[in-house]
Structure formats: structure tokens, C-alpha cells
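A reminder from the course coordinator: this example appears on the midterm review sheet, so study it carefully.

Given structure:
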């Protein structure tokens, strides 16, 4: 019972982050399932099964708040589904001993990317309104879908920063479109795991707990996307992913406990510095925006 409550809380927290940032539900949930001993393929299958419901609810909520660009959803969702099915089938064929470190490496890499991307670069918005082309979205969907299934998460960490970096779609619509298109990825990945695994190792109660937590959070997250600073949240989430998967990888190597503690402590310190940097950067951006607005208003009055 305690495990189910924990999973529901994780599902709630992960969906709050995913719905307001466009990433991290799968990575966060899969990381927890691996930490409590679930094998990689079953962990990813369980999370994607729960995501069928959470992404549907999240997409509906984002649509209600006007956060979805349906052209982007169509152009990235279908290739994403193809990549996810291929990734799920590939992961199902790997042995558990090989799959666990492979997945942890992928999750760690995604965590480092999320942490560094939002800590040092923030968001780009200078090209908003220019069209996103299919030749950009289709390969992005294929790669994102494959990594999502094999790494237990990756659709958001790959898709959201890439589209944000293009600067052609406003952040809330990037997040809403990525969350909505993830429904196709979740369905395709689930089908791939059913083909490769059947129902072996998939706990429907765990998937239900993750789903219920996510359903509660989905409408709240769609509303919060306009309020929460993505830069700070991205740094915080990236740090969680890096810390947890560093611990998993260190457990697979023959390293003295004292050195393990030192490495993890260093990760925590770097994480804290990254979050502090993001907070300061966000405040600087706010101050600069206020200053520009004040100057423009003064010029308007003077004119």
C-alpha cells in the first residue's frame, strides 16, 4: 500500500512538472521504478501504460487553455509513434543485466541535458510565429520516440528543448503540443512492449497509481504553465534525474562506499549551484523585461 501511495504521489509530482515544462514525467517515474527494483523493460512499459491516460488528460487540458498547435502535434506525433514502437521492441529484446545500465546511462544523459539546457541557456523566443517544417519535426519525432521507449522517458527532454531552441513557437504552445502528441508515443510504445513482453513484469496496480496521480495534476499543470518559470523548474528536475541515475550507475560498479558518497555529494552541490544560478538568471530576465517596458512606456508618453 505504501508503494502505491508513493507511486501516486510521484505520478502527481511528475505530471505537474511535465505539464508545466513539457518533459520529465517518464524520466522521473521510470527512475523511481528502477530504484525500487523493477526491470527496465517492465518499468518503461508500466510508465507508458499510465501515460496513455495522463497524456490524454494533459492534452485535453492544454487544448482547453489554448496551449496546442495541432499542426505540430500531427507532424511530430506520427513519427514519434513509429520511433516509440521500434524502441519498445528493441528494449524488450535486451537482457535485464544489460538493459538496466543502458537505461540509466540514457536517463543520466537526458538529465544532464535538461539541467544544462535550462540552467545556462534559458528559453529562446526571437523567432516566434515562423512555421516549423515537417523535415525538422519528423526526424525529431523519430529520435524522441525511440529514446522515450528505450530510456523510459525522452519525448519531452528531446522535443521540448529542440522546438523551444528554434524560437518559432511560444513556450506554452511548445509544452502543450509536446504533451498532446505524447499520447501517440505512449500508445505505440505500449503496443511495442505488449508485442515484446506480453504482460510479464507489468504491474497494473502500479500503472493505475501513476495514472491517478497524473490525472489529478494534469489540469493544474496546464494552468500553471503560464505561471511557473520553466528555467528554474528545468534545473530542479534535471538535478533530480542526474542524482538518482548517478546513484544507480555507481551501484553497478565496484566503488568504495566513501567514494560513492563523495561523488553523490558533488552532484548535490552542483545541482544546488545550478538551481541558484537559474533563479538569479530568471530574476535578471524579469528585471530586464520590466526595464524595457518602462523605457517603451516613457518613449510613448514623450512621443
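Designed residues:
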Amino acid at each position: 500500500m505504501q508503494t502505491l501511495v508513493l507511486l501516486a504521489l510521484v505520478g502527481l509530482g511528475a505530471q505537474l512538472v511535465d505539464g508545466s515544462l513539457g518533459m520529465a514525467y517518464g524520466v522521473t517515474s521510470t527512475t523511481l521504478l528502477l530504484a525500487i527494483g523493477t526491470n527496465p523493460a517492465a518499468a518503461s512499459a508500466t510508465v507508458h501504460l499510465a501515460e496513455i491516460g495522463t497524456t490524454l488528460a494533459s492534452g485535453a487540458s492544454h487544448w482547453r487553455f489554448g496551449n496546442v498547435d495541432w499542426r505540430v502535434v500531427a507532424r511530430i506525433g506520427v513519427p514519434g509513434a513509429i520511433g516509440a514502437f521500434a524502441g519498445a521492441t528493441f528494449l524488450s529484446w535486451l537482457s535485464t543485466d544489460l538493459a538496466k545500465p543502458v537505461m540509466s546511462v540514457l536517463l543520466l544523459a537526458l538529465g544532464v541535458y535538461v539541467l544544462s539546457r535550462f540552467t545556462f541557456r534559458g528559453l529562446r523566443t526571437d523567432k516566434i510565429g515562423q512555421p516549423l517544417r515537417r523535415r525538422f519535426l519528423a526526424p525529431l519525432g523519430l529520435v524522441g520516440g525511440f529514446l522515450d521507449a528505450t530510456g523510459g522517458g525522452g519525448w519531452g527532454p528531446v522535443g521540448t528543448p529542440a522546438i523551444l531552441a528554434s524560437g518559432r513557437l511560444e513556450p506554452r504552445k511548445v509544452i502543450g503540443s509536446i504533451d498532446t502528441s505524447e499520447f501517440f508515443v505512449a500508445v505505440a510504445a505500449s503496443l511495442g512492449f505488449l508485442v515484446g513482453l506480453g504482460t510479464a513484469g507489468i504491474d497494473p496496480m502500479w500503472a493505475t497509481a501513476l495514472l491517478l496521480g497524473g490525472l489529478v495534476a494534469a489540469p493544474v499543470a496546464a494552468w500553471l504553465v503560464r505561471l511557473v518559470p520553466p528555467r528554474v523548474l528545468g534545473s530542479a528536475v534535471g538535478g533530480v534525474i542526474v542524482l538518482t541515475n548517478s546513484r544507480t550507475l555507481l551501484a553497478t560498479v565496484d566503488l568504495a562506499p566513501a567514494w560513492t558518497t563523495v561523488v553523490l555529494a558533488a552532484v548535490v552541490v552542483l545541482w544546488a549551484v545550478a538551481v541558484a544560478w537559474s533563479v538569479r538568471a530568471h530574476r535578471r530576465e524579469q528585471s530586464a523585461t520590466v526595464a524595457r517596458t518602462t523605457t517603451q512606456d516613457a518613449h510613448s508618453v514623450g512621443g
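The first helix runs from residue 2 to 21. The CA atoms of residues 14 and 253 lie 29 Å apart.
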